[in-house]
Amino acid sequence: MPDRFAEIESFVTIAQSNNLSEAARRLGLSLAATSRRLSQLEQRLGVLLVRRNSRHFSLTDEGSLLYERAGHALTAIEEAETDLMRRSTEASGTLRIVTTIDAGRARLAPLFHEYALLHPDVTLHLETSDQPATSMIGSGHDIAICFDPPADSALMMKRLADNPRLLCAAPAYLDRRGRPSRTADLAGHNKIVVGASQGELWRRIMGGAAGWRLTLNTNDAELARAWALEGSGIGIKSLWDVQEDLENGRLEPVLPDLSLPPSTIAALYLPGQLNSPKVRSCLNFLARRLRGS
Fold it and tell me: Is the keyword Phosphoprotein assigned to this protein (predicted)?
């Protein structure tokens, strides 16, 4: 006995064909099997759906009602299947991304706008957070764009680009306190630090220098930039954060020949997400654009 879906599908084909023989041909069944499916459906529902004899074929009122509703349902199912199959090969649907506030506004927003223009079937939803990696867990985001992301076994990572870092300070501060010519000269300067990882980097820069200390510490990268602009000390900043300040003379490099490890710009995503064309295409686009290719 065919299942309920097969019975309904056969009935809709019968109603569209207006002829049992034609319906049997479309279904790939024998005339007897097609007629049997119709009879089984009528028996299960307890109503006559089709008036038929050797010369006439027409739907009853109940048959017309079932055809209208079932026809719409089958069309909706076919459209859903087609859409899902298209999404398996083409970027489409809603893409949810979370990143830091400063990066989202200054750098990533224009790139996402460009991506959206290239992929009109994708609706892009961008949010900002102080901790995008943490915000992604359980929030429904597809991608988190992070800087120096923490290791997390629950998330996969794609390295997008490296963001160079440098020491910098306001010209007024350097005029007042002097411009270092070697790392040992940094010992007497105020140091602006963002988080524990930068504190460790400062220790590596200073090496065995005696008497140095961290002066201003924060977890807010924009606050650290503001302190540097106000002349509070020397900070370690990524080129993304201060490129315009350097170009406009609001900040200047300190020990420009000193090589610092770059900040990693990475995308975090859940295992299996690369199977999604919208996620895969966005990550590849960002990697190309951030690396300047």
Answer: no
Co-location of 78 and 152 in the same domain: no
Tell me the pTM.
0.61
- What total of structural domains would you count in the chain? 3
Whether residues 158 and 180 fall in one domain: no
With b meaning 16 or more CB within 10 Å and e meaning fewer, what string describes 224-254?
A: bbebbbebbbbbbbbebbbeebeeeebbbeb
Q: Which residues are bridge partners to 52 per DSSP?
A: 57
Specify whether 181 is located in the same domain as 255.
yes
pLDDT per residue rounded down to tens, the chain (293 residues): 457 888 888 888 888 887 788 888 888 888 888 888 888 888 988 989 888 776 667 888 888 888 888 888 888 887 777 676 666 567 788 999 988 777 666 678 888 889 998 888 899 998 887 777 766 666 788 998 888 776 655 788 888 888 899 999 999 999 999 999 999 889 889 999 988 788 888 888 888 666 667 788 988 888 899 999 999 999 999 888 898 899 999 999 999 999 999 888 889 888 888 888 899 899 989 988 887 64
Q: How far apart are CA 136 and CA 142, in angstroms?
A: 8
